[in-house]
């Protein structure tokens, strides 16, 4: 699917599920691999990013059997059982894979070489390598050891107290994984709470993790015990059909079994603030993560302001929130989101440029976006630039643009949402 064309849609109707949560799927493979014993995973996301994580751990000698695209059995080898990989560990397009895996590699007494695609080569690795070096890891890379390809010689770590300058679950998780292999205690503090899937899943795997206001700590030398994981639907993927249903008149849809971890539900808070008709019904807890159903009906939206602690709770949803904002009454202002510049693309610049091609009135600021709502969108050709979330956001914009939109380089969507186009088509045929 190199090109995806989306046309103005009939009302969206129906009850659907979205693919498994990407953050939880990555962690299930990593933690299952370093645990002692067997881990079975159901609801795994078979997207390109999580497949890259599987390939990396297989290269380190872990047996991972994929019974179906969404069901895995991992025979954990324990910390000591990971083997020096003979080939390059290729993380593809996945920031989560490289940054969390570096925390594991930093403590292993072997050499590993790590790289990914051209997007990964542009993304900063010093944010995890600086603390890892402080703990004693030896890592080198391009441009003074800051960019891939990286060479890691692990082992001999000592715990640290790290004050992270940004709220990032990738930084926090990397340091915690290294901390588990370090002497003494490791403490990570962050300016706002980032997603806490690592803390929750480590606890489920028998690790003692202490969360406190502003941070998290653990003691080194702990082993993980294999544990079955049931992965909820990814709220970051659900965001695309949710916004589509809000914008296409006459729509009414339900998305079942979506992860509702409060560190991820910022989009629901924002949509409520914009006046959206959104109902959330919590139905249970899967592997320590709250899960439920979300129902939305087409709504008249108002502009809003998004900043501060909300940002890490909806960081990956900003491109699709920007699409919703183009159709809202009044102005939407997004601040404190400079982190978007170091995602798969510079999502501040690319969201503004790509949505402008459809007539959106959207302005880039140093740390966010200003969107003047109530703009009728027109037809155009957008480019995902290899960024799955930009591909899907522009595709949804095409469903409300007069004449529709074509998205070039739409294959990128498979990174997090295989079956996206088919699912959207199914909703509009009902
Ligand atoms: O830990 C994770 O699974 C993720 C953390 C976030 O990145 P940062 O930690 O860089 O904010 C998010 O953008 C990414 O999609 C997944
Ligand atoms: C930023 C993302 O992922 P990663 O950092 O894992 O590449 C994302 O999925 O939007």
Automatic annotation (TrEMBL):
One of its GO terms (cellular component) is cytoplasm. One of its GO terms (molecular function) is 3-phosphoshikimate 1-carboxyvinyltransferase activity. Residues 7-422 form the Enolpyruvate transferase domain. Its EC number is 2.5.1.19. It is an enzyme of class 2 (transferase). It catalyses: 3-phosphoshikimate + phosphoenolpyruvate = 5-O-(1-carboxyvinyl)-3-phosphoshikimate + phosphate. Pathway: Metabolic intermediate biosynthesis; chorismate biosynthesis; chorismate from D-erythrose 4-phosphate and phosphoenolpyruvate: step 6/7. Phosphoenolpyruvate binds at residues 22, 95, 123, 170, 347, 389. The active site is at 316 (proton acceptor). It comes from the Bacteria. PROSITE patterns: EPSP_SYNTHASE_1, EPSP_SYNTHASE_2. One of its GO terms (biological process) is chorismate biosynthetic process. The keyword Cytoplasm applies. Its main location: cytoplasm. It is found in: Cytoplasm. Monomer. Catalyzes the transfer of the enolpyruvyl moiety of phosphoenolpyruvate (PEP) to the 5-hydroxyl of shikimate-3-phosphate (S3P) to produce enolpyruvyl shikimate-3-phosphate and inorganic phosphate. This is 3-phosphoshikimate 1-carboxyvinyltransferase. It comes from Marininema mesophilum. The lineage of its organism: Bacteria, Bacillati, Bacillota, Bacilli, Bacillales.
